[in-house]
């Protein structure tokens, strides 16, 4: 369904994220016919560039970063026809008038700030004071949304001085991933799982976002963040919220976000002994510290932790979170481990091999899909022997007619135009997540000798992460 006519102003239009993700995503939505004829994308940045130069840059970005095999030169040419460019100085007066003159009165105005957060207040203020932002305009912000509670509060205050909360779209691109949304469908559109979705039936949950890439090329940013700020406070927190939240009364943005905030507010503080931090240490030239350009860095490139959601539904069911760079494989999943049956007629000493346990795995990437591990009778001739078998639904195989799943950015940008905030973080949600993360981070930054444990590139993380589980008589699922 085509969206309403829009003028999308992209600040930071020549930057890395714009070229890799935002512009190719817009192109793919255009390609499938989601834009009405007169939609326009207006690139801005500090650099002087003419319209043609911008069009060339975008065409090149689409050829490099667009979906392989899905781009034709004709379509790219038609798309770049929608593009305009004007240089704007975010911190000065230059360019704002020209930008305002370019915008139409009868189209939705969306301002996408693909720039560092230090520019958010200036740009938001200028958009408002120049009258370029109307009461119906949307403003879209990229992460990181602050680096602690105080900075997130300051950003929220600066935004709210110029925009209403219903106009503010804080992106966490994990919320745009197909399987993440499927988690809500799985839980709330089926009657099968929800009766079991509590501590009486679920032993524990493992949330893993493993990455094989290192931090080369972005060490300067990463070294100030680490895995906790870069991934846990936002992406893993969102996965935890969607897994743990109560069913919202309605599928509306605020009903969903209210329930997520309640999960964050129910989190217990995490004690230092429930956390394992690691830093990859490869052969010369391939260590985190070299990639970060900081030989004494104590920033973690891996973190695992045990998190407790202290409410009626989850008391006694821990959530183990784990994420890191330079691991064996790129693999992200939520694994829900169910308790064994209350009475076990297939105990180990019955010669059956014992029950294998039910695990529901929601795979985010790669091979998005859902698997339910069950115990069945081994079909072989060996009598009553039990074996594990998967009920497997890989979306690409089960639903081939659905075609390529949308990239997270494609979905999220279109939601901005539609005015649907369900998959965006509300201000209080971001602040609640920082309020939880801050004391955890302070727990190690206050102890300067608390250096992360080294781990080998291509491994599944440091030893301490394994111990965290072993202490509880549990094991991580394998990576790769
Ligand atoms: C970003 C982080 O938000 O998410 C990166 O800053 C990380 O460090 C990336 O690599 C992971 O996203 P995805 O979609 O590739 O899992």
TrEMBL record:
Residues 9-182 form the Glucose-6-phosphate dehydrogenase NAD-binding domain. NADP(+) binds at residues 12-19, 46, 143. Substrate binds at residues 173, 177, 211, 230, 325. Pfam families: G6PD_C, G6PD_N. Residues 283-292 have a biased composition (Basic and acidic residues). PANTHER family: GLUCOSE-6-PHOSPHATE 1-DEHYDROGENASE, GLUCOSE-6-PHOSPHATE 1-DEHYDROGENASE G6PD. GO terms for cellular component: cytosol. Pathway: Carbohydrate degradation; pentose phosphate pathway; D-ribulose 5-phosphate from D-glucose 6-phosphate (oxidative stage): step 1/3. One of its GO terms (molecular function) is glucose-6-phosphate dehydrogenase activity. It comes from the Bacteria. Belongs to the glucose-6-phosphate dehydrogenase family. It catalyses: D-glucose 6-phosphate + NADP(+) = 6-phospho-D-glucono-1,5-lactone + NADPH + H(+). The active site is at residue 235. Keywords: Carbohydrate metabolism, Glucose metabolism, NADP, Oxidoreductase. Gene3D superfamilies: Dihydrodipicolinate Reductase, domain 2, NAD(P)-binding Rossmann-like Domain. This is Glucose-6-phosphate 1-dehydrogenase.
